[in-house]
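Reproducibility note. Readers wishing to regenerate the assembly model reported in the main text can use the exact inputs given here. Chain order matters: entities are listed in the order in which they were concatenated for prediction.
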Amino acid sequence: MRLAELSERSGVSAATIKYYLREGLLPPGRQVNARTSEYDEEHLRRLRLVRAMIHIGRIPVATVREVLGHVDDDSLGHTIRLGAALWALPQVPEPDGGEEDEHLRGVREEVDSVLEQLGWTNALALRTISPSYRSLVVALAAFRRLGYGEGVELLTQYAETMHRWAVLDLDFMETHASEVEQVEVAVLGAVLFEPALLALHRLAQEEETTRRFGWAGGAS
Amino acid sequence: MRLAELSERSGVSAATIKYYLREGLLPPGRQVNARTSEYDEEHLRRLRLVRAMIHIGRIPVATVREVLGHVDDDSLGHTIRLGAALWALPQVPEPDGGEEDEHLRGVREEVDSVLEQLGWTNALALRTISPSYRSLVVALAAFRRLGYGEGVELLTQYAETMHRWAVLDLDFMETHASEVEQVEVAVLGAVLFEPALLALHRLAQEEETTRRFGWAGGAS
DNA sequence: GTGGTTAGATAGTGACACTTTCCAATGGAA
DNA sequence: TTCCATTGGAAAGTGTCACTATCTAACCAC
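Running the prediction on these inputs yields the following structure tokens for the assembly.
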């Protein structure tokens, strides 16, 4: 298939596809001659993956390139490749004060004790370098800075829920044979499944809110 | 406190605070005279809230204004205000094809049957207008378009988990008296707590991955 | 009365994700 | 063979976004 057909089948404009090729998000097609290339189903799939990462996962183009680079890199071990890909995903940025702590330090201690209590020894060991750990601490500290510190106490319950979710993810991942696919599935789980589950969560909130308060609910 | 102090205490530059005032994200200070305004602790809190929404929640400035407008609007009922605020949050954009269905239609049917099975009658009734429902369907359709349809079968399990989470949210919310605060807590739950829990989820994934595959794991 | 600060207006910046425009080289149709 | 739409590639342009910088006139403390 040529560029025009790839564009039509994916619903992505030819100019945008050229842009992705230029940026290295899509591998070049098979060169037929100096002025024509041929694309296949794998290109279409990759294009859909890229689009989903950008629009559903809200991942910047440069980051997509980096993440997919790790996914494709078969010179690394399985865990490393997966870790590298997941760690390249966008994270919560540094808080405003630069390094001003207090809340940050308090939350960090609390998170550490929760991890220890849960027996997450691997996560504890990775703590100093894991972006997920940093994101967690920063987000919780912001919450606490607004006066909702008590929310953090539920952390253990939430952590158990999230662990159950992770087990489901990895079970699902292991049903897929190829290593490249396994890493891809894990990345997709983080990039596409998270938004889906957040939408499901908001839907559950809507359900529960209307159950408790009805449709017009509360005073005006 | 004057602008310079507000800036120093929050770690946000004076120019940025002026920008937020201009955009209506912060209410103006108490005018002392033609060229001086006085700000209080409530301004500091609001500023931190805005910063958290923008940087942790990744919400566009215009959307923050809209969401906070709903939170502050005491002319509406409780449920409506909450719904309006949550529905104003950024959602998954339309898929590429414009309206090309098939996957979309299939997923929609599947989601509907899951909702029915769970007895989420309110969510089912809101289905046609709820942005969360749309986001869910679009994200799952993208997943399926990439060949991972089976993931959707776990939907019921995930939905039950998300409902449990929503119940925890609303329980927490109800411990807060003021209506304005209740709506704020719900919005914060969606905006700050979601990133925190996603970080927790990724941490759980790291833990479980290293448990199963070790540190170097898999072939190279 | 002088120097530093303030609110407010206007314009500028850099990142980002495309989009447009141009080109010469093809390749199928007439 | 001639014509003309299409192709890959390069380069410049566009619109949005979240600030950031510059300027002005008023004010206040010393």
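We highlight two features of this model. The first strand of chain B starts at residue 30 and ends at 33. Chain B is about 65% helix and 5% strand.
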